[in-house]
Amino acid sequence: MRTDVRFPTNGLQLAGHLHLPEGVDGPFAAIVVGHPTTGVKEQSPALYAAPLVDAGFAVLTFDAAFQGESEGTPRGLEDPFQRAEDFRAAVSYLTTRPEIDSERIGVMGVCGSGAYAPYAAQTDHRMKAVAGVSGTDAPGFLRGGDPEGWARMVAASGDLRSAEAAGEPAATFPVLPEKADADTPAATAEFIDYYKTPRGAHPRSTGDMVVRSVDLLDQFDSFADVAKIAPRPLLMIAGTEAVTRGYSEKAVADSPGTAELFLIEGATHVDLYDRDAYVTAAAAKLTEFFRKHLG
């Protein structure tokens, strides 16, 4: 059973879907699922919610502030500190629901949220089990694609803030081109094949980011203090062919013995968004992980 819900974060209302198992009584162990950078809750979070609900968990998917159906302007702002706060707000909301066992709440995310969730969990001990799927430090990944262009945007961010203060609309840029060509890097092409085609496109997943997001992202390091999650468990799932695999490997390497790396053979980064065989394998591992640590 899916219910549309709203809950507060820093004066904004976030839009979410609360999925509850049918035919059984709570209180349920619950899992918060966050979406990729530039994504929305109706994409990969919905695909992961279904098998987790079938396994008996309550699942809360939600749109980040400034994105999707959630409140916040300018639209398309990617504030990594707010993204982490959104996970904390989602957990707070779940603790108010009578159907949820507030002592058995886990968090997970896909892509950017696969790093924002562990970041939030470093200091929020209500998050009893933490997982990332294709987890990616968004600033590191975006910066690495064009370091010089990134530096120019960081340098311009102060002037863009001044322009907004004077009443001008927030400047945005498309994270992806509309189409791939022979010169498009393979890592970019696979994102285009998902976000810019019927395979994964969603009208609220616009792919536009506020330019001055970069001065926030440039200060952010998702996994710098990942060891603080311990002794709570951390699971990082990545494809063996994923360009972002190194983020999951490093997160686990920098953690104590409570962290686990689970590699899915042959999968790329975006394969874990929606490809049936790979999502099935990831969901099975997530189910095993959360059953073990949430009950």
UniProtKB/TrEMBL annotation:
SUPFAM superfamilies according to UniProt: alpha/beta-Hydrolases (SSF53474)
Domain Dienelactone hydrolase intervals: 16-135
Record InterPro entries: AB_hydrolase_fold (IPR029058), Dienelactn_hydro (IPR002925), Polyketide_trans_af380 (IPR051411)
Tagged with keyword tRNA processing: no
Molecular function terms from GO: hydrolase activity
Keyword terms: Hydrolase
Entries under Pfam families matching the protein: DLH
Transmembrane is among the record's keywords: no
Transmembrane intervals: none
Protein name per the record: Alpha/beta hydrolase
Organism, as annotated: Streptomyces parvus
